[in-house]
Amino acid sequence: MTAARLFLTALTAVCLLASPASRPEIHRGGCPGAWVPDWGIRDRPGDFLPSGPVTSVTYCELILEPGPHQGEARVLTTGAAEVAALLNAMPTREELEARIRAQESAAGRPITGELHLGEICPLIAYDRRGSFVVRYEDGSSAVILLDPNCGTAYYDGRTRFLGNAPVDTFLDLYRRQLARAHPAVPAPACPSRAGPAGSTPRDDIARNRGTSRTFLPSPLAAATACRYGPDGRLTRQRTITGDLEPLRTLITVETPSSPGDTKSLLNGTRCSMDGSSPTALDTIWVTDATGATAEIRVWRAPCLAVLYGGSAPLVPGRALLERLDTVLGATSGG
In angstroms, what CA-CA distances link 215 with 156, 207, 235? Predict the structure, then answer.
């Protein structure tokens, strides 16, 4: 999930602890249809979730703007029990505080004051809120509300601290489930004209990427290289065949989370950030095993840059440029 905006005038919010949280209104699809704004850090004894065989776990998103409406629900059946176990293993406030104090003491930084976990949280206006719906063999279900600001999960009077594991594990298992449902993926086609220089490259993979910093978390199923002239018109396209894992690795090396000179950011005065357009542009369109598509743009002239998703322009590595020239032919741009 991405933040729609950040309140600059108030960077922290104090969770309300006095009033009891109401139960979420359930949409006919089984997902929450309205958001319960505050549940605080109240807790009561017992396991977080009911016991019993789990048949599925659904990850729901309630999109808050321009008005509350449902995003597409993702239903996981294979591995659902694993996600339910992770939800049950989420720490209470006391357990997380003890863990943090032990870690800091071991590092020579003992904490003596209160930590106020779940009480003082960033005040980021996220445009959507997530939840899990765990369904059981007997037909019952449990709706777990997630607060991205406080990093908490709430269900039936109990609050736990979320971390990244439940959502990221769910998305990893969900991507594998999607991959099994997409045995054949056609090669993506090159648009006849390049996208506007200031636009964001398409990134459908982002939806199921989670907090992973790997741009392509799933194996590639198909890829196409495209070349555009100074007028932005398509001049050449080639389907990239054979083993696509080396290409996936090569693209991954171009991401900000990777070591090497590709982490160097351009100053943007000539490449895409000053309103100029490329006079020579290559793009790589990839479709991963889940059927999701993404675009990687490589400026070849008047300067060199790689753009993808919502990233800032990066310096492309030589190996990526050479691979493009092998597929599309040499270019005089760079």
Answer: 36, 11, 27
